[in-house]
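yo

u said u wanted the structure for the complex thing, so here. seqs first:
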Amino acid sequence: MSLTTNDVNKIAHLARLGIDAQDTESYAKDLSGILDLMTQMSELNTDAVEPMAHPMDQAQRLRADNITEINNRDKFMSIAPQTEDGLFLVPKVIE
Amino acid sequence: MHNKSLKELSIGLQNKEFSSVELTQVFLNRIKQHQDLNAFITITEEIALQSAKEADIRIANKKTDSLTGIPVAQKDIFCTLDVKTSCGSMMLDNFNAPYNATVIEKFNQAGAVMLGKLNMDEFAMGSSNETSYYGAVKNPWNTHKVPGGSSGGSAVAVAAKLAAFATGTDTGGSIRQPAALCGITGLKPTYGRVSRFGMIAYASSLDQGGPMTHSAEDAAIVLQTMAGFDPKDSTSVDLPVPDYSATLNQPLTGLKIGLPKEFFSDDLNAEMATKLSAAIDEYRKLGAEIKEVSMPNLKLAIPAYYVIAPAECSANLSRFDGVRFGHRCENPVDLTDLYTRSRGEGFGKEVKRRILMGTYALSTGYYDAYYVKAQKIRRLISDDFKNALTEVDVIMGPVTPTPAFDIGEKMSDPVEMYLSDIYTIAINLAGLPALSIPAGFINEMPIGLQIIGNYFTEAHLLNIAHQYQQVTNWHQQTPKGFA
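structre next:
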């Protein structure tokens, strides 16, 4: 299985991940190498096997619906790149 | 002072042979003296001396815990309130965590003294500590060699005696592999035993924190503080924590040790095989019975792991978007540009590779072929372990295929780097506990013996490791220049 630079650009867009144009080729080569490793999995028939998502196979624990968090707004705002009036700022989304 | 065990340190502090401030100063001096190893990202000198003073007051008032006043270095993956928590990444170079990880809280409550934050592979993705934004860490046994990863800084801090003990995290071997390559003891507990709250996530169904120490005896003391149910971590397991030190001295007569034939095939380096069989002979002398077991699906652990871990990583790392914390690019023109450039600038090459791999494996049309297939293989591997552990009490094997390799040797080929994780990653897929203990040297570089147990048998693993350390002295060796 081999990936083209075009494939890499598509995946990078899905991940909203900027990659340098000059690196695309090497990512394509690396990912193709990794995918070759993955193809070993197809040698094994797993039709009757239940997928395992989690080592304990447990259901998510539930808790009572109580407010436990204290208000940390100022703290969280203080480490944000750009804020105004207690809100996170991003570039304009709607014209 | 830096050569003492945790028990000796605690006794020395309580008997006023030395104060916590004096002890802390010894380690701070050593850290500065050996900065060329690059083990630390942040040294928290002021915090350390302040906590040491508080610990001395606590000791004077006789309100001590087994770790009160003892200096620890924390892997930089654990969030520390108002202290830089970088996870080895440029993305978080400006990030002072707004809260403490549960593990950090537990050490604070015990009165341990934090010396600083340790270097690591970026977001814990790497097996050599070379992917860190802060540069490679050097192995004190030979500074041209890697210390292993991702908890490379942790292993070096302990091996070079820059801290009394350290914490690590293990997603595919990140505690055990650097422990082996630096000649220290490292334990990855059962998944769910140690809280993951505030431990920056790489692959959530695999990540687990644990102790990195000079001996199994020390590891028992540290795990006692780290382990336990945490309501803040929804995958934390609500089971009582046993007294890990109480059972260290139990005899090993009748212990059944399984050796997977897949671990000891002809592929295993001949010198490694010789050293490991010498270690297993020690266990025979201690009264253990040795039996061959088989785990036929083990060879598929690498491909399954390198689908599942990147898939979980691509989801976990989507939170780094340049909006709420972490790196943000200059002058974004729109939201897509903000995300794309902030992430492109903030992440290094290996992290990008894994995000791309994971995104691909989870994308429409490939999900079943890669992700679901890998999860099915995960089940088969887990069943292999379950079956083997009905026949034997523990499984033993190598930790790594070879001793530490040269810095730069494997950086050009990611697949070759991934293959070096062959003996450790299956354990994370199954969620089992496992530890690495020093078991000798090849060409003057340390190697490790891996001991894998059933779920929540950490006390037994520590007992088995401790008994070996009573009859061998590999764990007491110190690299030249660090005594």
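Chain A is about 35% helix and 5% strand. The longest helix of chain A spans residues 24-38.
cya
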